[in-house]
Amino acid sequence: MSFYISIDPGNKKCGLLLADIETGKVIQAVISSSNNFSDLVLLWNENYNIKKIIIGDGTNCMNIANKLKQRNIFDLNYVNERGTTLRARFRYWEIWPPNYLIRWIPKEMLFPPNNLDAIVALILLEDSLKYTFTWPKKVDIRIWP
Prior knowledge:
Elements lengths: L2 E6 L4 E8 L4 E9 L3 H11 L2 E7 L4 H10 L5 E4 L4 H12 L21 H13 L11 E4 L1
Parallel strand pairs: 1-4, 3-6, 4-5
Antiparallel strand pairs: 1-2, 2-3
Helix pairs in contact: 3-4
């Protein structure tokens, strides 16, 4: 198996996603503070065969990249993240379709109940690889301290 990490960098928090490239499945999704995200990246790097790290090229990306480089993680690939937050709203509803009553409301008017940073990380990975990943029901978005 080979794994990629995708990061949606932000000023205060980051969305992180671990995906198996061979099976096309999301393994873990996490939202972490911008101060502590590198601990999780190191943990994933130790436990999985990480091939690449994808980072959105927007807000705070250079600071995030510098923190990873300080931890001796250098294989970083940048992806254009323009418009990914809006796209994440639609992708959220693809992964977790709304219930019967809400289903009839136009998706443009719906705001997902969860934080979208991990979904943005998914979109960054999908854009980078030009491939749509599946999100197994057992994978929940967790909060990393």
